[in-house]
Amino acid sequence: MERQFEEGVTLDRFLMDTLADHPEATGTFVNLCQSIALAGKMISSRVNRAGLAGMLGATGEVNIQGEFVQKLDEYANETFKRSLEHRGHTCMVVSEEEESPVLVGERWHSGRYVVTVDPLDGSSNIDCNATIGTIFGVFRRRSSEGSPAELTDVLRTGRDLVAAGYVIYGSGTVLVLGSASGVNGFTLDPTVGEFFLSHPRIRIPEGKIYSCNEAYSPRWAEGVNRFVQRAKERGFRARYIGSLVADFHRTLVKGGVFLYPADDRSPKGKLRLLYEGFPLAFLAEKAGGAATDGRGAILDRLPEELHERTPLFIGDESLVNEVTDLNRS
Ligand code: AHM
Ligand code: MG
Prior knowledge:
Elements: H1 11-20, H2 28-48, E1 58-62, E2 68-70, H3 71-85, E3 90-95, E4 102-103, E5 113-121, E6 132-140, E7 161-169, E8 173-179, E9 182-189, E10 194-199, E11 209-211, H4 222-233, E12 237-238, H5 244-254, E13 257-260, E14 271-272, H6 273-286, E15 290-292, E16 309-310, E17 312-315, H7 317-328
Helix pairs in contact: 2-3, 4-7
This protein binds 2,5-anhydro-1,6-di-O-phosphono-D-mannitol and magnesium ion (MG).
């Protein structure tokens, strides 16, 4: 029987108790989660002090996506990589901020996991104090341990993910972790530096909310516009922050649907498959929701390249199916 956790349990205790339920586990996955939590705490602290620590604004660099790199993007990327590098659990990191996969040093080639990460999603919102976050996905490598990881360890369908989640830096810092044990949210108490279970066994509730950048509606497929029109007629509210991790977190907690469709200027969509679409689709499905690219399930996609883009329809299962059907018609 699945173990039930009470609110207030620390992340460490949650991880150790879950580990005890899997006698075959070596503890490597727990170490990986602890490293991610540590990076989340460090980034959270820097985000909170950004205005004081001279961390607002752009570095002057342009990243692989053609976007201006913010100082906090750079800090989050380095912090995340460094916290995964030296513990022996991770062999490769694929980051939004890096053109190529980052292989960890030779000493740690035997790491078992490949991690994909958007170190600071929503970073165009940094300077106005809106909510941002770190999104991650975890694959178990399939190349042999002991040699450097290979591209085929990460270019695989989202069904191969073993875990995914995000750390959101908002009015509070929350780590949402999805794994075989479901989706659970932990809130950071900054006074003691610990994450405590605050959102046990998350399931997407029913909610009448649609979330999209409606300014682009003239460029969308007719079916998507029809869905939005129907949502209005049914009394839905609109919410859009423009920071995927924040829009998704609201969808997970309050329900509704988030849409970032393809359009005639970006026929492949804007969001990235490996470190945005896959992790959030994994969480949505584990929380009883769904995610598609407007045609089929996101998790069934097989990426051909690291920074591949995708349209994203995600949230409440019946709403995602409705808009996907209309988009296809
Ligand atoms: P990024 O901040 O990692 O570059 O992510 C892209 C962001 C998402 O967080 C958000 O959902 C989307 O871009 C908003 O796009 P737009 O401004 O076109 O509505
Ligand atoms: Mg992003």
